Amino acid sequence: MDFTDSEPNKPLKPPHNSIYHSLQEILDKSSHAANEVHEKILSYLEDNEYKCGKMFDLNKWIIMRLKMDNFEASLCETSWISTFGQTTGVYEYIDVMTTGEVKRLIVDMDFKSQFVLARQTQVYSELINALPCIFVGTEEKLNSIVCLICKAASQCLKEKGLDIPPWRKARYMQSKWLSQNCKKVPFSPLENHVHGPV
After folding, report:
1. DSSP H stretches of helix in 139-193
2. Which residues of the chain have pLDDT under 70?
3. Cα gap 41→47, rounded to integer Å
4. CA-wise closest residue to 76 among 172, 195, 177
5. Is the peptide bond before 15 cis (omega within 30 degrees of 0)?
6. CA angle 71, 112, 149 (to 5 degrees)
7. Are the beta carbons of 178 and 142 closer than 8 angstroms?
8. Within 13 Å, how many C-alpha atoms sit on residue 78's CB side?
9. Which letter does DSSP use for residue 113 in this model?
């Protein structure tokens, strides 16, 4: 998996350029704590020590590395009841508690792909390309991104005569990271499928 953030495309034409600029404003706002965690994660990945391709295992490996650097990191699992045929949804991400002004950070190692649609318009594709592959930020920042992208998805697909899938609507997407049904998942550093430094 390529964790290098893509360069955003050229600014969108009106009226969509306002959406693009709003997204950029949200993305540009980042705390010192978020920047520090993000830089640490990038340095881990650059070490080329991670040898397993599964996202679940990558999350665990990143948590172990963060803990080695004295960060309070945990694996979080959210679950929720959906309203369109599937009884429940489940998602996992990394939680980092800090001692500064920002108390809690959400880390998603596969953030951009969560918003990809099977039949994207060019406008929507350009918005997605502006998203980071790895998200590190507050609940508020994440929620702002989700609301903006889901609204843009609905608008863009309607222009093509398409309906937005229920699992790409804001309420469902918010549940992935912001569900009240959230638990920390314990795991052992000795589990066979978590690969450490080689």
Report:
1. 139-159, 170-178
2. 1-16, 48-56, 82-88, 189-198
3. 10
4. 177
5. yes
6. 115
7. yes
8. 20
9. G
- Considering the entire predicted model, what is its pTM? 0.82
Question: Would you say 41 and 68 are in contact if contact means Cβ atoms under 8 Å apart?
Answer: no
Sole residue written with tokens 């640490």 = 40
* Residue-wise DSSP of 38-106: HHHHHHHHHTT------HHHHHHHHHHHHHHTT-EEEEEEEEEE-SSS-SEEEEEEEEEE-SSS--EEE
Q: What tokens does 24 get?
A: 């950029």
Question: Torsion angle, CA of 128/77/103/194, rounded to 10 degrees?
Answer: -90
pLDDT tens, 162-190?
A: 887 788 889 889 999 998 889 999 887 65
- Asked if residues 166 and 83 have their Cβ atoms less than 8 Å apart, the reply is yes
User: Which residues fall within 8 angstroms of residue 88, CB to CB, at 6 or more apart?
Assistant: 79, 80, 81, 82
Structure tokens, 43 = 């340095």
pLDDT of residue 80: 80
User: Which residues, at least 6 apart from 129, have a Cβ–Cβ distance to it below 8 Å?
Assistant: 6, 7, 8, 9
